[in-house]
Amino acid sequence: MTDYYEILGVERDATPEQIKKAYRRLARELHPDVAGAEGEEKFKDVARAYEVLSNRDKREQYDMGVDPSAPGGGAGAGFGQGFGFQDIFETFFGGGQASGPVPRARRGQDALVRMDIDLTEATFGGKRELQVDTAVVCGTCGGNGCRPGTDVRTCEVCHGQGNVQRVARSFLGQVMTTAPCAACQGFGTVIPEPCAECSGEGRVRSRRSLTVNVPAGVDTGTRIKLSSQGEVGPGGGPAGDLYVEIREKAHDTFVRRGDDLHCTLPVPVTAAALGTVLELSTLDGQQEIDLRPGTQPGEVVTLKGLGVGHLHANGRGDLNVHIDVQVPTSLDEEQTELLRKLAELRDEERPDPRLAAAHPGVFSRLRDKFAGR
Ligand SMILES: [Zn+2]
Ligand SMILES: [Zn+2]
Description:
373 residues; alpha+beta; four-stranded mixed sheet; three-stranded mixed sheet; binds zinc ion
């Protein structure tokens, strides 16, 4: 826990008056006009220490080992009594940085667009054209926001400083505070004749076309970053980044789990019993699948490396084919006769009704998922 007594340089049994005195002394020493930007950081600690130790309830909590200014700490005391930390800070520093005019050109915001892709694109990757609507540098003024032939003018209120100083009264006595100049919004310059095209913003909205490289393995939620393709900033400042968020459309046949694909293959009971070779339409074209004689319902045949490509890595997931053995439902006379004959040969006319424990495969997670398909 932070030692607030040490920060203020007082004893643990210091009186409220001693605490206040110590705080005032440090506040003057750490004022940015005296200590510079470094003082500001230290002052934050000092103000936090004072906020706790100057409040009877909070000091009591703190002495019992609870830091009431820590995030989530302190019960109920809140910032209601006395000075809130933010109040102290703003009274003291005027809430603003006192470091000269802010540049008109600022970095643009990042932009996010969504892109729908299908499973084939996610599996193999590819290039896609994308229309984006973002701010671009104004072609009329080149980004400075001035009507062509005119230029920005130094602000007469702050003389180009971007901020104004004023004397404020506070509980610390009189302090100089610095605030952004209201006349020029802190820029130090004004635009006397704004560009008609962009109203002085230096940028306009425009639709343009981009080529996006979609890597193999992207999934719903994956974001592809296109550096500096976001919107141009105010005053023609550098562009932010563009993020393309992927949304993968569901495929009619294949269900994706990670980089593996799953599908169901209905197989007649005779083929499952006798075994066979079948041709499947996969994302990689026709592929042979080998069913061994005696293939069971729910059995999974794995085609290695025919799943989705791993994102930013070599290799691909697998294609898992879940075998769904189909029992015939309508038999003609001849078929019925044949099956009866088979049952007789196998001595299965009156099967023994032996119950067996449910075997784990039947209830496996994936079977459940595919049961509804
Ligand atoms: Zn313009
Ligand atoms: Zn100004």
